[in-house]
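Supplementary Methods S3. Complex input for the 1-deoxymannojirimycin-bound model.
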Amino acid sequence: MYAPASPAPRRDFISVTLSLDQSDDGSKTRRRRSCWRTWKQLSRLQRNVILLFLAFLLCCGLLSYLSVADPWTAPHGRPAEEKGRPAHPPVLPAPRKADADLGQGPRPPPQKPQRHGRRGPPDLQIRAPRRVAEDGRRTDQAAEEGLQGESPPRTVVSWRGAVIEPEPGTEAPSRKAEAPDRPSPQAPRIQNQRAAPNERQRAVIDAFRHAWAGYRKFAWGHDELKPVSKSFSEWFGLGLTLVDALDTMWILGLKKEFGEARRWVSTKLQFQKDVDVNLFESTIRILGGLLSTYHLTGDALFLQKAEDFGNRLMPAFRTPSKIPYSDVNIGTGVAHPPWWTSDSTVAEVTSIQLEFRELSRLTGDNKFQEAAEEVTRRVHDLSGKKDGLVPMFINTHSGLFTHGGVFTLGARADSYYEYLLKQWIQGRRQDARLRDDYLEAIEGVRRHLLHRSEPSKLTFVGELAHGRFSAKMDHLVCFLPGTLALGAHYGLPTDHMELARALMETCYQMNRQMATGLSPEIAHFSLHAQKDQKDVQVKPADRHNLLRPETVESLFYLYRLTGDRKYQDWGWEILQSFNTYTRVPSGGYSSISNVQDPHNPQPRDKMESFFLGETLKYLFLLFSDDTDLLSLDAYVFNTEAHPLPIWAPARTGLLEEVTGGPVPSARRGRGRRVWT
Ligand code: DMJ
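Predicted complex, serialized as structure tokens:
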């Protein structure tokens, strides 16, 4: 107990002595009285300091709770009024003169490189990375020296802390990975036999070029462009936008841009870096981007990089439960969960399988596939689901769901459902468990999450928290119409296609009913008809738009699989809105803070890598009438829009790709096929 020697004098320092009193009999009452006496004996300064410290702890606890409970505790605000769109809406900051020249190759932005800032939802933010290691610098230098030949540097790294020693799993890519340096069977069709781009596709190419110009001038080789401040931000320090955009450039036919980016990958992209990466985000964007670019180009460089990167992610799976940690240091091989929890996000651990499975198929090294599929197996067996719907968190020690009772198809759960279907398709529809889990989940959605709004009766997918329905739908959920349509194309119930159409209309209205024509991050739907109230309501905290792809992604699937041109028209409207409200004249596009104010959409000064990797790619494909361009019978898109081949029947060999699967009737096009 605290025992002051004399009546507490005022001091300019704190001295608290805690000792266990041997004579204390341990009675709670005595302890409480003694604590109170002790408290009274403290000086005011001492009490204030202690109170301040407790308040600080309380704030930390509250913040941490909010980051988990955020979706459920969004402040209720009056729906903002929708204003008419001005004929000449305000543009984002005007370009500077110096922006003109693009021919001289990328110039470094006029600022010091930033340290790796953390990005993403607050609950994914992790500790600041350590310095780039000495050996990392040497590796970079080595890469520079090897520039002429453009052969990727063959570095040997270690997973044992700072000790550098060879280990088979982290050596330069295996012979198998180096071997297939020919274009995949699909690649020539994409590069040489496609029709000239139509007018709308040319508009997408123009948008891409504009976005790329900003990235090239102000953020070259960095993760993300900050188009308004003409600078960049780092997340992993791996040229995220560039890698995410590689296959889009190839598909759009931007050879010059692609060549320049390829050279950067060859000479600058190094994974021997002391940096933490998020397993999911880096898998879908970097690993997925490298694998799909390899498939489209046949260029072994991309497979070598993919294998190197995949190896560096593997320590994430070394957990007691085999459920991977959220983060892994690709230089030291140390993996860990976020500092405040040992949980991982369910969507994150279940949306890396397409990429890891494909990496195994290409390299012949099963460890990637085994690690990822073990997660699928364990999640399949888990209790705590509600009619196929999964909670949002899973513990890396116990392997069990945590924070149960909350069910959403939005953030933290979304791509779990997407990857059930897509893994089933990728594996030639052999694994019935994946299909059945998917079917059960869609029935769970119907039973618990599907409602209709008033007055227009829009079908939407809400959320369920401990038995209470919330009429709230993330824009992220707009991946679902496309996924449902894809499932129906592969013979799943036809009512999935009906639901897809209904949800597609809703996602379109989430854009259409905003004054800018762009969806908010989260929409709330009116459940009861009220005078002058629209179906889609937005709370002040939710009215931002991050240039996300989900609506146009689903429009692509719906058009490709139904041929209904209204979906192209809807996508065209959205592209116009991006151009009107998010295009920064000096280069790039910016996410905005207020989709309801066309006079001041408030640019947030950030161009997410998925705008190039996904949004513009899906728009380009949506406007194409060529169903052979990345045919849905030959490719499955990962959740970052990177196309990966559907596997061929085993007898045709590992490196062959399927161009239609075991198809009973229509091999391609829009015909519906049924098989199980
Ligand atoms: C992308 O990184 C992926 O589509 C992911 O599945 C969800 N979030 C973004 C796009 O909104």
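The pocket of 1-deoxymannojirimycin is lined by residues 415, 476, 548-549, 610, 614, 639-640 (CB under 6 Å). The first helix runs from residue 28 to 41.
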